[in-house]
Every structure is written in structure tokens, then in C-alpha cells.
Amino acid sequence: MIPELNIGRDVAAAADAPWADARQGAPKSLKLILLGLALFATAILFASSNDRLSRFVEGTVADWAADPVETAKAAKQKAIAKLITDTEANSVVPTAEGADAVARNALLPVSALPVEAARPFLMPTISLAQATNAQRCLTQAIYYEAATESDAGKAAVAQVILNRMKHPAYPNTVCGVIYQGSARPGCQFSFACDGSMRRPPVPALWRRSAEIARAALSGHVEVSVGMATHYHANYVLPRWAPKLTKIEQIGAHIFYRWPGSWGKPRAFSDAYTGAEYIPAFSQLFQGAAAAAEALPGEVIAVEGVPPPRDPTDRRTDTDVGGRVDVTKGWVPNIPDPTQSKSRFDSLTTQQGAQAAAEPQSVE
User: Fold this and answer.
1) What are the φ/ψ torsions at residue 287 (nearest 5 degrees)?
2) Contact 140, 321 (CB under 8 A)
3) Using an 8 Å Cβ cutoff, are 202 and 147 in contact?
4) What's the whole-model pTM score?
5) Counting beta carbons within 10 angstroms of the beta carbon of residue 227, is it exposed (0 to 12), middle (13 to 18) or buried (19 or more)?
6) Is 39 helix (H, G, I), strand (E, B) or coil?
7) pLDDT digit string (tens) for 117-171?
8) In sequence order, what are the residues at sequence separation of 6 or more whose Cβ sits closer than 8 angstroms to the Cβ of residue 114?
């Protein structure tokens, strides 16, 4: 309760107490304080439903005049960043494997929305070394990820890689996308960090993978997977699978796109940079054998032990898993018998004629 004011007494005492004016104004100040507390309490009550009031109560007065559109954009970017982290960090240990994963994958609903095809990608004019790297990286990914899949399954893997290349969440080169995180377990493409490339490729399957890669870099679009940026085999269930939009299953692979507008064609707006680089084989994480030798919490990359050399294998020593080390200062230019038959026949004919002309030794 506010006491009544005795004006006469106060005026009489004014000459003896110079601070009397301050006492006189105190009741007004008290009213203002109580009014301010009431307003502040009202602000707290509505803070949970009003983003601006919430920021004000938390002390971020500078955001008072912020654009609501910018606020929503920041929240969206934060959610996207978390989703990227989740799809990377949760790729090491799946939720389920084997028959259990197959059954649970089948229960994940397929999106009813129309599948929107990606725009064709045409490899621009770049240096021979970089073009060779891009072609080889994409061939490797197709071969080691989908060598035994159908042509559509191989093309779908290539499409995922090109989709990522044009998306702001990933590197802007073919090799950059494929080898992202390859120095640690749980990299983006498992063959790049599980030691798969220590296996020499089967020539016929390698050639077909190379043909699919060339087509993808020349504008072929695998329409069935649309804007897919993720896939996995149906015998595993990654933790991130339910967080993405399931599009299609081709063979053993299930394909997904980002949810919402980030999975729409307009989000794939990044330009190709053209700086294609293949990391050295010794820089790659090489599977469980390497992990077992590492200290707890330590991730190392060690040189893999190659299997015994097949006597019929005529590959160059620098060809590791179909990857020629161009850091040696040269670029391979070997005619492909399936593409240059006339030249191949000419070379073999000359070799045969030369062998026939040489005198045979008699023991």
C-alpha cells in the first residue's frame, strides 16, 4: 500500500532537509517500477510463443529489429547443419544389419511426391590430368560400389555423386565428393576407406564401369533416382535413413534425397570447380586391420599389404585398385582394345610378324 502524502509537513520541512524533493518524487518512481515489473512479467508469459520477446528476455536486444525471414533462415541452416552431421557421424555403426535390416528397410515409406530429375552435367574443358582424374574417380566409385549391379544401378551411383557435387553440402569436384572423409572410418563412400581398392578389378566389369562414368560425365541423367544424395545397401540400416526421403530401390541399393527444399532441384546450385585430385593410397584409411593397430580413439592411415601378384596380371605397378598415380609426372595413354580395335590389331599383327621373323634357338 502507498501511504497518503502530507504536503504541508513536507513543505515545512523542506528548508531543513534539502533531500525532501527526492522523497516527494519517490512514490511516482515506485509506480513506474511496479508498472515496469508488470510489463516484464507480461513479456515473460508471451516469450515462449513470440520469438522476438524471447530474444529480448534472453538479453539479445540487438536482434529486436531482425527480419523474421532471416530468423527462420538461420533456424533452417542450423537444422540442416545438424542433419549433415548426423548423416556423416552415424554412418559407422548401423541400426540393423542382415535380414533384420532388409525387413526394416522395406517398412520405410517411399515418397509419394514426383521424382524430379537432375540437370545433365557436361564435363567442361579442363586439363588432361584433371579430366583423367575425374573419369578414374567416378569409375572407381561405380566399380567398387556397384560392379555387380545392373547398368541402371551403376548409373544411379554415378548420379548420386554428381548430385552431391552440385550441392552446397559437399565438395564441388568429382574426386572431392568420392574421397571426402577417406582418411577415417565411416567415410562417405565405403570403398575409399575399407581397403577395397587392394583388390585388383575384374577387367570386364571395370570397362563397363568406365563406360557408365563416361556417359555420366557427358550428360547422361539417371532419372529414376532424381535428386538423390544418399544410398545404402538393403542389408544395412543406417541411423540416418529415417531422417531422409526415400526415393527408390535399384537392385540392392536404396536411394534417398534431402528432405524439404534442400532436396529440390533449385538447391543444387553450386558450380563445378574442376580441381580434381586423387589422394595417395597411403593417405586412405584401410579398414579394420588398420583400426585394430591404432591406439584407442586414434585413426590412422597405413599402407595396405597387396595380395600376391597374379602371374597373368599385366597392370603397371602404379595401378592400385584401378587408380594410376599421376603424381609420378605422367598421364597414361594406353589404347583400350574395346575402343581402339584397329590400332590394337595393328600392334598385335606387327608383334606376331616380328616374332615369326626371329630365328628359333635350337638346343
Assistant:
1) 95, -175
2) yes
3) yes
4) 0.63
5) buried
6) helix
7) 999 999 998 889 999 999 999 999 999 999 999 999 999 999 999 999 999 999 9
8) none
